Amino acid sequence: QCCQNVSVLYTLSVYDCVIQLEKEKCMERMAMDDHSSEPELVCQWMWDNLTCWQPAKIGQVIWMPCPELFEVMNEENDEFGKVSRNCTEDGWSEMFPHYVDVCLFNENGTSPVSDMYYVTVKALYTVGYSTSLVSLTTAMVILCRFRKLHCTRNFIHMNLFVSFILRAFSVFIKDGILYAEEESNHCFIHTVECKAVMVFFHYCVLSNYFWLFIEGLYLFTLLVETFFPEKRYFYWYTIIGWGTPTICVAVWAVLRAHFDNIGCWDINDNAAIWWVIKGPVLASIMINFILFIGIIIILVQKLQSPDIGGNESSIYLRLARSTLLLIPLFGIHYTVFAFTPEDISKRERLVFELGLGSFQGFVVAVLYCFLNGEVQSEIKRKWRSWTVNRYFAVDIKHRHPSLASSGVNGGTQLSILSKSSSQIRMSSLQAETPAT
């Protein structure tokens, strides 16, 4: 079963797992059947890799509904046909009609569904998370490197960047553990390492949602409150952003270990246990959407203030730009499928939330680091400083080679030159300033 938002990643593997689970059920029925050795039952139990056929007598026709796999693949089709086999003296006959004719449908209801769609989605989110990982790591280096960028707002951005980085890493680790092989052995992995990977994956995803929520809460509080003790609030933000996911995932892991300890914990059939993680995710999305609406209302009021100035078109242009900038920061795009039933539009959900959502970290890094005016100014200032220092160091070395052997180093020479140039500029400014 594919659960919304967080569990959307599992759709790519659930098909194989459905087949394996159906096969195990068939094997159990075969082992428990005491009538399979009766002479009149010429056709014995048979598993054809999709359907479990029960024993039958000669001339008997067995009708079976389409396998559960096709119900998962074609969630938009409410009715499925049936397939049949005839028991003959030579055993089971060929199936009629074939699975392709009655079980596989596209939008027109005639053609089979191609697995290439899911391979394409997997390739898309792999590229997306890789791009986000590189850009976010670069943004983190920039924000950590320059001290003038160290403030509460950027510290919150940095924690959000870290949550995106961890989310990308967890996706790659999970794919490497579960889907390294083309076979379906991952459906029945019971190792502690595999379960630990799933716990880490859920923690990273949940932390990412909570830091998106904190970004919205911080901006809303900044606009509403006149006196805003940022340092004290940041302490609580850190506890909420990293602590709450820890509690939720720990409770989920304990419940899974005691009541639903099946496989690698990558399929969530127990809805009650899954709500321990799904509930906080939906709550963060809903609250962030409310904060987003509140911030837009505040921005409208501020932009319409006579102190701002400007015509009506410029006001709406600034409002539209502010809204577009807030959407990736708040994760508002998650609300598109957040409260729709999980068995509706699975394909669209995969592309939107998994494919396009994997680029969210890249968009956030670009908007709130690379295109940030404060960051650009600091980089330019450092670049000019490095260029000037390098120029003076080379110039002094060529003009005064004797100084290189003296006790005066390059740093002292530059400080003397800087003081001298500052005194010259001050004297010129005093000379140009009229006496009062």
From TrEMBL:
One of its GO terms (biological process) is adenylate cyclase-modulating G protein-coupled receptor signaling pathway. One of its GO terms (cellular component) is plasma membrane. It is found in: Cell membrane. Residues 25-107, 121-372 form the G-protein coupled receptors family 2 profile domain. It is a multi-pass membrane protein. Its main location: membrane. The keyword Chaperone does not apply. It holds the Pfam family 7tm_2. GO terms for molecular function: G protein-coupled peptide receptor activity; peptide hormone binding; vasoactive intestinal polypeptide receptor activity. SUPFAM superfamilies: Family A G protein-coupled receptor-like, Hormone receptor domain. The chain crosses the membrane at residues 123-143, 155-173, 209-228, 235-255, 275-299, 319-339, 351-371. Keywords: Cell membrane, G-protein coupled receptor, Glycoprotein, Membrane, Receptor, Transducer, Transmembrane, Transmembrane helix. PANTHER family: PDF RECEPTOR-LIKE PROTEIN-RELATED, PITUITARY ADENYLATE CYCLASE-ACTIVATING POLYPEPTIDE TYPE I RECEPTOR. Belongs to the G-protein coupled receptor 2 family. This is Adenylate cyclase activating polypeptide 1b (pituitary) receptor type I.
